[in-house]
Amino acid sequence: MARSLAAEDAVRAHRPPIGRAVFAAVAGRLFHCLLLAFMFELADFSVASNKVFASDTPGFVGSGACAACHQDQARSWSDSHHGWALRPATVENVLGDFNDANFTLKGLTSRFSIRDGRYFVETDGADGKPATFEVKYTVGVSPLQQYLVELDGGRLQPLDLAWDVAQKRWFHLYPDTEVSAGNGLHWTGPYKNWQARCAVCHQTDFRKNFDPASHGYKSQWSDLTVGCEACHGPGSAHVAWAEKRTTAAPDEQLDPHGWMRRTGISKQAVEQDMCGPCHSRREALGADSTLPTGAFGDGYRLSYLANGSYFADGQQEGEVYVLGSFLQSKMHEKGVTCTNCHDPHSGQLVAEGNAVCTQCHNEVGRPEFPTLKRAVYDASSHHHHVPGTPGSQCVSCHMPERNYMVVDARRDHFFRIPDPLLSEKVGSPSACLSCHTAKSAQWAADAIGTWYPEHKPGKTGYGEAFAAARRDGLNQATISGLVEVASDASKTAIVRASAVAEIGDQADAEIASRLLPLLSDNSDLVRRAAVQLWRNAPEGERVAVLLPLLDDKIAAVRLAAALELSIVQMEGLPAEQRSKLRTSLENLRASMAASADFPEGQMAIGGLAMATRNWDAAKDAFAEAAFFDPQLVDAWLSRARISSALGDVADATSVLSTGYQKNPGNAVIALNLGQLFIQQGRLEEAETTLKTAVGATPDNQELRITLAIVLLHRGNLADAKLEIDALLAVAPQKSDVLMLLGLWEVASGNVAGARKTVRKIQGLYPGIQFPGPLDALSRMP
Asked: Where is the Doubled CXXCH motif domain (predicted)?
């Protein structure tokens, strides 16, 4: 790794998005079986016991235990996205065409078939050869359905082939991506593993049970799909109350009906913490499902408005789901929550079309939102489009959609007022121009100005700041703009936190001090982001500022502080602080261990081990990362660099040799391996390695420079000149290239030419130091 604190980079890295089916319900779909029978059928697919019991610690009982009393809710839920999140592959649940259907893409034909009521797919396996796999489960209902197969060690993997429910066709989720067997992004690879990436949001009470020794899983759950208790929490105490109509348990954590209490927070916060973990881009702090009654930050690390995930003005770009967008909105600021618009059991909107918006946005208003301007919104006088057309729909302007997983259009939950000039300035989509494709941003802005002369679009206060930082990099001007955003209390918490995250470890002492109050901000998002501003502070100052955050009420903040303090020399701390930091680091290790089946999780474990100088643990973790994803170049490099730093050059060479076999022609591995060969005087092997890499990546100047040095040392002047000429053609004034030319001229006996080259270098780079053979020439008059 480029920096010793590899853990920070690994923790912040986003896992490659593989997608989750976010499914619109199919209105009017009829079940062939009775509702209660269906509910109890689902309960049968439970690994955990469904025994009902009363206890101080409630247990999970399965959705089947709920349906008898809550029939209306169960009926709504049964055909919802949640009800279809994961189901066994049966004739009732499989929507795709498995009647000997074929699908061909890039020369690979996959076949879908049914045998004895079981569903099979013949496609390329982990070794690249055709193989037949049995479909175990279905994922989702609309607009697409995916399919899970079970591989060795209990690993469940979703196929990249999915069924388009509307068009009734097979399609590939990544049709434009070349992903062959052996690549971590292949459907059999680690980045597509169900237990690691998907299960906690598609199942209830999911326990991963990953075995690091065998790399297998013995996963368990209480409900196969997203059942009642995924949102309501474990129900055994409530069932006991329902049967006896007496207080479920003498526990202050339970209400009289047996549900877990959560007091002192708003309805919005309750729903945000309940729904947010599965409707957001985030990293889990643990391996298993969390209780819906916990704070979001105690189970997850919400992603900031990062480049590639969000456009600079905050619009959705990558697959970010809902929460990060919603937290930016005025709707969230005013207390709107999920169930104001969505029925919690069916998942459907509470009203059709514009009516879901006009339940609040009308001339009468709504008491719980007293600041909402009372006016007629669902009329041409507001939207200025012909009624009944797409332009007259609230969502067309305020919730523009973006396509994911090829066929899945998802609406942005920012609820923004369109600003075509800002979109043009920062490079984000424009809701206006998505329909009026032949028009300009200025045309759209003029129309808005005519319709709403009181509205003043333009500067948002953060879109420009983020765009400048992404475009120009972090410099004094762009950092100043980000600091202004981060310091502005009128901005939403996720915007301020994202501004801090953009600055990251580039903060100097002045900026860190100016933003010091953010460490005690009301928002844990802001506190967590502010921690990294102190990474480069002197150790004593960093300890003084961050140690109190090891007691923060939110786990994500505590873990962030522990990570930043992991490189502290613990011996110099007082006993009490030393003990606290040790405990916090153990908690951090435990959190990272929950992602031990992620390649990037092992990189984080290795980075923390490096920070705490546990070299053996670091090497083991990087070896595991390379095992999971042999194409993860940083894993090979990090493992080798530890051995090299410890003086075990032979081991470092062996590691990189294996890494190069797994990644033939990789320039970075080849360069580092070549340098190790040079260090050991193994010039022939260095030449062979570097030549193959240059052949694979001929534009890599550093590779050619190193190869030319090796060729000069071996006396192969003709091949060395070929490399030098290739470099001169693209970098005629680069100092390293001119030095090589001078060395070649000396080796060829062309001293006059070498003196001329030396003078040219001196003219371009006054005061530059020359290597031995050229040093004497540089001193000549």
From this structure: 337-364
Residue 699: is it exposed, middle or buried by C-beta count within 10 angstroms (0-12/13-18/19+)? exposed
* Cis peptide bond prior to 130, omega within 30° of 0: no
574 token code pair: 């007082």
* Whole-number pLDDT of residue 197: 96
- The dihedral region occupied by 387, where left means phi > 0, alpha psi between -120 and 50, and beta the remainder, is beta
In this prediction, residue 255 has a pLDDT band, given cuts at 50, 70 and 90, of confident
Distances (CA, A) of 146 to 139, 188, 227, 361: 5, 14, 19, 38
- CA 607 – CA 615 distance, rounded (Å): 10
pLDDT tens per residue across span 460-484: 679 999 999 999 999 999 999 999 9
CA-to-CA separations, 510 to 480, 482, 483, in angstroms, rounded: 11, 14, 11
Query: What is the per-residue pLDDT across 615-636, written as a single tens digit (0 to 9) for each?
Result: 999 999 999 999 999 999 999 9
DSSP string, 515-527: TGGGGG-S-HHHH
Distance separating alpha carbons of residues 199 and 647, to the nearest angstrom: 43
Separation of alpha carbons 704 and 348, rounded Å: 60
At 454, the pLDDT band (50, 70, 90 cuts) reads: confident
The answer to whether residues 192 and 157 touch, using CB atoms and an 8 Å cutoff, is yes
**In the block, which residue shows the tokens 């399965």?**
62
Distance CA 497, CA 304 (A): 7
Structure tokens at 416: 């923004």
DSSP 3-state assignment of 507?
coil
Which residues, 6+ apart, have CB-to-CB distance to 509 below 8 Å? 537
Cβ 352 vs Cβ 345: under 8 Å: no
> In DSSP terms, which residues pair with 87 in a beta bridge?
138
Q: What is the 3-state secondary structure (H, E, C) of 630-696?
A: CCCHHHHHHHHHHHHHCCCHHHHHHHHHHHHHHCCCCHHHHHHHHHHHHHCCCHHHHHHHHHHHHHH
Average pLDDT for the chain: 91
Contact present, 297 and 254 (Cβ < 8 Å): no
What are 733-749's pLDDT values in tens digits?
999 999 999 999 999 99
User: What band does 57 get if pLDDT is binned at 50, 70 and 90?
Assistant: confident
Token code pair at residue 737: 């290239």
Write out the two tokens for 297.
């930050």
Q: Counting every residue, how long is the chain?
A: 781
**pLDDT range class, residue 20, cuts 50, 70, 90:** very low
- For residue 418 the two structure tokens come to 């369109």
Given a contact cutoff of 8 angstroms between Cβ atoms, the answer to whether 230 and 275 are in contact is: no
Q: Tokens in use for 739?
A: 């030095």
CA atoms in the 13 A half-sphere facing the CB of 740: 30
What the block records as the tokens of 773 is: 């053979």
| Structure confidence at residue 55 as a pLDDT band (50, 70, 90) | very low
Average pLDDT value for residue range 195-205: 98
User: What is the rounded CA–CA span in Å between residue 327 and residue 747?
Assistant: 66
> What average pLDDT does this structure show over 720-724?
98
pLDDT at 689 (0 to 100) = 97
Q: Is the dihedral of CA 349, 354, 358, 360 positive or negative?
A: positive
pTM of the model: 0.89
DSSP β-ladder status, 87-88 and 130-139: antiparallel
Alpha carbon 155 to its chain's center? 21
Decide if 753 contacts 745 (C-beta within 8 A): yes
Ranges assigned E (strand) in 97-160? 101-105, 108-115, 118-124, 130-139, 144-150, 156-158
Tens digits of residue pLDDT in 352-379: 999 999 999 999 999 999 999 999 999 9
Record the tokens describing residue 599, joined without a space.
């390649």
Of 533, 668, 591, whose CA–CA distance to 284 is shortest? 591
Q: Any bridge partners for residue 131, and if so which?
A: 123
